[in-house]
Amino acid sequence: MSTTQEAEVFFAERGFGQPFELGEKPALIVVDVIVGFTDSSLPMGSDLSFQIEQMNRLLDFVHAHRIPVYFTTIAYDASMSDAGIWAHKMQGLETLVRGTRTVELDARLHVKDEDALLTKKFASAFFGTDLVSRLINDHVDTVLVTGCTTSGCVRATVVDALQYGFKPIVVEDCVGDRWPDSHRVGLFDMRQKYADIVDCNTVLTQLAQRYEHAAKA
């Protein structure tokens, strides 16, 4: 069985995992941090208390510097007719009914009135939403991706961000999953092929340097 270190060497020797680094105009995407995913008593839920604390540190900074923020939720009609075949694969989606508490953003999040809230039906924050046009309108070149789950909706959002030409940076301690192995492998795979993986402290340092420099210019 290969170790993580051996795998890192294997991919690095083949040119995987090259860094994007922070661009000139970032935005923050908070993927599906809703009650249905953060209440561990629910079928789709897990305890993301630590991740939410870290997200709030990031949210406080980006709000102070007027960096665009996009929250997403996932919500369906009671009939589930708008869930397609995905609801057959994951029956827990039936708990995410429009107008119920499960599809509301977790109350612990530091949300501002000016933040965008997009409702989606499938994994990616881009699929079936107007996120691309919003990012273009805000002249965004880099998306900081947070939320849940690492191996699911976060990964799908990262892949689409890359494909649409936005640099994806996953904030490592601001994403979570229902199962540790899914989280770990999801991060490893995204690091090699789709995104930079950076912790919250590093992201905040980079942002502070960028915006302090811009203020002095």
* Number of domain units: 1
State the fourth-level CATH superfamily: Isochorismatase-like
Tell me the distance between the termini: 52 Å
- Quick one: CATH class? Alpha Beta
Description of the structure:
By secondary structure, this protein is α/β, with parallel strands linked by helices. It has a single domain, classed as Rossmann fold (3-Layer(aba) Sandwich). It has 8 helices and 6 strands. It has helices spanning 4-13, 35-38, 49-64, 86-89, 131-137, 150-163, 180-193, 200-216, and strands at 26-31, 69-74, 116-120, 142-148, 167-176, 196-198. A 6-stranded parallel beta sheet has the order 3-2-1-4-5-6, with helices on both faces. Helix 7 (180-193) links the parallel strand 5 and strand 6 (196-198). Helix 6 packs parallel to helix 7 (180-193). The longest helix has 17 residues, at 200-216. The protein is globular. 38% of the residues are buried.
